[in-house]
Amino acid sequence: MDLLTRRYTVIFPFNSDGTQVLLGLKKRGMGVGLWNGFGGKPELGETIDKCARRELKEECGLEARSMQHVGVLLMKSTTSGQVEVFVYTAKDIVGDVIESDEMKPKWFKVADLTYKDTYKEAREWWPTMLQGNKFVARFEFVDAAITSKEIKHVDAKQLALLRSSAIGP
Ligand SMILES: CNc1ncnc2c1ncn2[C@@H]1O[C@H](COP(=O)(O)OP(=O)(O)OP(=O)(O)O)[C@@H](O)[C@H]1O
Questions:
Q1: Ligand 1 contacts CB of residue 40 (under 6 A)
Q2: Which residue of 12, 15, 84, 96 pairs with 20 in a disulfide if CB–CB is 3.0 to 4.6 A?
């Protein structure tokens, strides 16, 4: 990662039997009008794990009793530069779902996801995540078009290495 890479987290909560995923409709800023997991930028000195937990609570009211780091997205775009997104899932959650200033949450059946009104690349990597695989995905964009993509399955150790390089102070 260089200084110009922007780092984000995104976390996807699931119901207890894993058949439904909670998505949020972004109400403002980046990705407005699109369904996505919950997340955002780490605060100064915050680990990405803590960021993922905090954003989940702030944006939809849920707390993750446990969560799994399942992937990393590496995006390069002619319009918005480089982005690195750490992807988490949470299958053991507590609390009541609430709407926040940023997100309008809604449960979706995993089997019925249409990818309508999601980020363009979501349909490329969400299936890998939804099948329970760990991955690193790279996308390149020229303007809004995907010009290159690669999705690699990785193991927990490889992800831990990527995560440890992003932990910061
Ligand atoms: C490019 N491909 C991507 N695919 C999937 N998710 C992506 C993403 N890039 C960023 N993310 C997510 O996008 C939101 C931006 O966060 P954003 O609202 O800017 O950050 P944060 O919540 O810190 O904002 P405030 O500064 O508090 O408004 C946040 O949901 C984060 O999870």
A1: yes
A2: 15
